[in-house]
Amino acid sequence: MASKKYVYFFGAGKAEGDGTQKALLGGKGAGLAEMTNIGLPVPAGFTITVEACAYYDSHAGRWPPGLEREVRQQLSRLEKTCGKKLGDPGDPLLVSVRSGAARSMPGMMETILNLGLNDQSVVGLANTTGDPRFAWDAYRRFLQMYSTVAVGLSKEVLEDKLQQLKERLGVRYDHEIPADSLQGLCTQFKSFFREQTGSDFPQDPWEQLVGAINAVFRSWNAEKAVTYRRVEKITDLKGTAVNVQQMVFGNLGDDSGTGVCFTRDPSTGENIFYGDMLINAQGEDVVAGIRTPIKLTELAERMPAIYDQLCAVRAMLEIHYGDMQDLEFTFERGRLYMLQCRTGKRTPAAAFQIAVEQASAPLMSQAEARRLARAGYLPERYVARAAKPVITTDQAIQRITREDIERLFYPVISPAIPPEQLAARRLTQGINAVPGAACGKVVFNAADAETLAAQGEPVILVRKETSPEDVGGMQAAKGILTQTGGKTSHAAVVARGWGKCCIVGCDALKIDYQARQLSVNGTIIRQGDFLTLDGSTGVVYRGRLELEVPKPPKEFFTLMSWADRRRRLRVRTNADTPEDAARAVEMGAEGIGLCRTEHMFFATRERQLAIQEMILAESTEARKAALDKLLPYQREDFVGIFEAMAGRPVTIRLLDPPLHEFLPRSPEQAEELSRATGIPMQVIQHRVEQLHEANPMLGHRGCRLCITYPEILDMQVRAIIEAAATVKQRGLKVHPEIMIPLTIDARELQILVDRTRATADAVLRERGVKLEYQVGTMIETPRAAVMADQMAQVAEFFSFGTNDLTQMTMALSRDDAGRFLPDYCSPTKTGIFREDPFVSLDREGVGTLVFIGVDLAREANPKLKIGICGEHGGDPESVKFCHRIGMDYVSCSPYRVPIARLAAAQAAIEDDLQRGKSRRSRPTAGSRRPVAKRGSGRKASHRRSGRR
Ligand code: ADP
Ligand code: MG
Ligand code: MG
Fold it and tell me: Which of 356, 422, 454, 848 is the most buried (most CB within 10 A)?
């Protein structure tokens, strides 16, 4: 039996794998393969698959059968390609052993550089490079990394020995240490290894290689990596791949260097080549933030040839991937090598600017592309494409995620604060790593951050630098502040991924971990004191400053206008007040899909008393009298909302909650009510007892109230129509839609619709006004959904109330299920639901009911307008489902309106892509609506049996 392939080679212009194989080769391995295939200069190597790691993991650290043979074969292939042998004493091949899972987990797992060095080959390296200092430094680094990463010896002890040496020599930087001192340090490291492990540092390169590969395998389950995956909710990965790759050296003098760069500015999105680098340094040095890096622009001046090559790589990769890339490169004695590429993380504002510019403007001018081609750096076939947009507007729309939108609205320091006041609070300034502002209590370690945040306190985590161990605390904090590091340091990269406010490289901070305090130019800030960070400028302020939600960048509006052109679904909002309505209109809402009237009754104590009086009334007359008091309040509210919506449709739901929710909750409240209304206390107590229900959510609520007390409906309809008439008479357009909640039967609905129309028409006659209004119902009981054909003959519109529908279909209380739903949603514990069904519509179960309802209703009344309201209307997957089953609109809370607009456009694009595919594969006449599988939103057929 041919065994499974575990190792994939890349080098000399060709790779066995490619960029699509992230799941197998990890992101790094897939990127290295792809870059090799498109002709970029990538040092040769091979990738051991994620499956090998998974096997190692589940077989107590054994390699799968055949892996050793494959690694030996691929190693000798690598040796042939490079013309050197691993650890050869004369002219050694050195390799790096690099981790890399399918998703980027910055700094979580291990990498070992310079493997293949030993007491002999270090001499060979010194000879071939002519640089003994370099060779001993490389050996020193390898001893250090291998001892700590592969064997688990203390990082601090070795780091201390290095520091002590530097102090003895009176030098600041590693590269100032002379060769013989480094050689001495290597001896010290090796004896430390012997002391600690009882054996000599492995001199056999194969043994080193196996040890390093195993270390990378094991790093998958290191505590910090496990924590990171938990925090990031990464559950779909099986392990890390291992990349073994020929070493190239950025620390071979002043014509060597290393850096990380982004094809566009990851903070602003600006179309510039953005990056940090170090001359005469090895890879890790940039990320570790040990020395302050220089900008790419400086490279352009100092080494234009290298810079131009990088510019060509930038163009090729952006064209190839159609997205902004994050690159690692090294140049060795004037020769450029690419070591990593992946889709770059970016701030939300940058996400919009990049998507919009990539779809509407070229990366570089034709002249610039020509120049790079003439220099021999940019292959001819890229020249024309470099001067065109790299993606379509559809691709730009598909690229943006719900998080991108949410993060756009992250807070900034209130612009209303006077400049003098800001200046007075200004403490210091660092590097603006991730924009957005944060305000909170200072803590100095991750554990304290987690503890304090768990108590509901806002926290600012302050560290000299962060490391992967700090991730839990970084996540818990509102903002992160570090003393060292640049925009590509660990803190910056991790925080950027979350869109969390972060300031790094704040040199002026003097942090005292022991005393839990920091000082800046004499000002002392203690643990628990407030700081405010402005991640956009890098300024740190003392104390607590007011934050507010910012105005989005212009590219946001451009992209949303593209989305609006593309979508078929309309997007409305759930709003109960004129302020919410106005905000939603700014966010692009095309109407109100749900205006809850009960919130209006809680607005003031006066109103509460009026509704309580209504509920307590024992006769119809008394009830009407109380309702008359409520009428003006309701009318006034509706006028405000109609005006704010300026002619857009406004769906108003009649009273919905069980009456007891309005009743006095304490004896004091009951007494106040008694005083205000003159109703005796005993009567109040008696009514409260009478109204008690064992199961109020399934009790006397929704339209059932109006069946019993039609005068409630009369008052609400009167208020709505009078308000509409008033607004109309002021010369504004108005389009009210009256929605009857919680119906279960067409006859029930008919009674209420008739009553609504009678009242509404009477009001219009009284006022002498003509206006259009509609009467419809919420579909939120399973019975209404399966009898939708009958309901549809009575209603003019349906709004699926999927909160209640989910609650009733699953028999799960939305208010209480939070206690056990996490068990149902945990992939490791049970995996019963993929997501909380109250957050994302359960498309298979509840969705099927909705689908049945839509289908039946449309057949009975093709003109029926159908939408959804409730939490699901702002959840992208649920919105896409609504699109697929042919709804007319979704309605969601104001700040989620853009998310729904985007999702609706994405659904339309996905639809077209799908249709394009199916047209090509089987040319059939299209049906009215796409019909497909259960739960996908397109269903085959359902039986209509047992119906009356
Ligand atoms: P991480 O995932 O933490 O970035 P990497 O595997 O990318 O880890 O390696 C860490 C550093 O070492 C990076 O700066 C990388 O560019 C550098 N590096 C890795 N392999 C090589 C190599 N073969 N030659 C030179 N530098 C390398
Ligand atoms: Mg890397
Ligand atoms: Mg409801």
Answer: 356
